[in-house]
Amino acid sequence: MKSSNSAFVGRWRIVEMEQWDQDYVDEEESGHITFEKKGEGHFHFGYVHAQLDWRYDPAIDRVEYSFQGSCEGDEMDGRGWAKIEGKQMVGQIAFHLGDESGFKAKKSR
């Protein structure tokens, strides 16, 4: 079954990342990625804080996004994608000229 734009809206708790352990993900607060209406949002894990600009692509049934933010005071940006599989979200965060990590998240209530 295909998702829809509204299925992504909300706060998703990051429960797993390929490149970083959960202690780092939750260092400052619970790691999360949030998709807001009208294509805005943000994520926070470890010391990384970023604003999202996202779009849902129904042809491939996933969200693609770009982001800008900071990590320990250094400016950074990048891109990523996310899709819903069952009751969880899976995706990728890729820093421009830097690290990439897959992630899994569960919708917060």
Can you write the helix and strand succession as a string? Answer: HEHEEEEEEE
**Helix fraction?**
under 10%
> What's the number of helices?
2
Q: What is the strand tally? A: 8
Rg estimate, integer Å: 13 Å
Query: What is the general shape?
Result: globular
Strand fraction equals over 45%
Q: What is the overall pLDDT average?
A: 94
The strands making up the biggest β-sheet line up spatially as 1-2-3-4-5-6-7-8
Largest β-sheet summary? 8 strands, antiparallel, barrel
Category from helices, strands and their pairing: mainly beta
Extract low-pLDDT stretches: none
Distance between the termini: 22 Å
Describe the structure.
The longest helix has 4 residues. The model has no long low-confidence stretch (mean pLDDT 94). The chain is mostly beta strands and 109 residues long. The two termini are 22 Å apart. The protein has two helices and eight strands; from the N terminus they run αβαβββββββ.
